[in-house]
Model the fold of this input.
Amino acid sequence: MRKNRDYWNSVAHHWVEMGERQWNSPPNWGFWGETDDSFNLLPTDMTGMKVIELGCGTAYVSAWMSRRGANVTAIDISGAQLATARHLAKKHDVEIALIEASAENVPLDDSLFDFAISEYGAAIWCDPDRWIPEAARLLRPGGTLVFIGNHPMVWVETPPDGSPCEARFHRPYRGLNRADWTHVEFDPGGIEFNRTMEDWLALFRNTGFQILDYRELYAPNDSEGIAFSVPADWARSWPAAQVWKLQKQV
Ligand SMILES: C[S@@+](CC[C@H](N)C(=O)[O-])C[C@H]1O[C@@H](n2cnc3c(N)ncnc32)[C@H](O)[C@@H]1O
Done:
């Protein structure tokens, strides 16, 4: 957590431009900006819903939810990311309760929220054994958790030096858990987390979540280039992202 907080505080200035762009955009998902119509991750009408974004960064997903009528709380571990979020919320006159905290240990009461979401926030930067139970605690029975993050295929096909993924296995799938990118040669980052499908399913079962939907995102046919070390060419054959939609059991 400490390493990831320091990393995000040090790179937050690189994310301002993307944050500004996304605050001005309609909801879109994944590295190639698929529109909401095709994924339906956010309810169209969120009027009166109490929602929380876990690892909000510049908080554009929170802005999208607020514009659909939700009452939004957003947390992030990086004060620098939250400073951008605060600036953009003021500029766009959008009300979001921004809290500096870890999604692994949220300083809020149980069962407060109808809906929780993470878009490459807690979804990849927090230990699932900690943040998934925390999301379950924060949701009311029947509440929804949606999260989008890197697909396990991205991990197993990324070379150990952090260079773009390729059509070759570089690490075992079995036991997939935690990857430390702090000292890699290409684009050093923080510490990320993922699970095998079997382990995700066991975790959801043990924390009282039912699966409403699961999607795998590929690159669209007309996409090109490399997004966050995932080449579009590669992601036409292997999924770049996984999207889980879960419901806390009543
Ligand atoms: C790629 S951003 C995703 C957020 C947002 N969708 C965006 O792109 O601005 C990842 C965010 O996760 C946050 N983060 C990392 N570890 C966290 C933790 N333990 N708790 C809450 N947020 C965390 C980082 O500070 C960063 O703002």
Notes: The CA atoms of residues 94 and 169 lie 45 Å apart. The chain has a mean pLDDT of 96. The pocket of S-adenosylmethionine is lined by residues 1, 4, 8, 15, 19, 55-58, 61, 75-78, 81, 102-104, 119-122, 125-126 (CB under 6 Å). The radius of gyration is 17 Å.
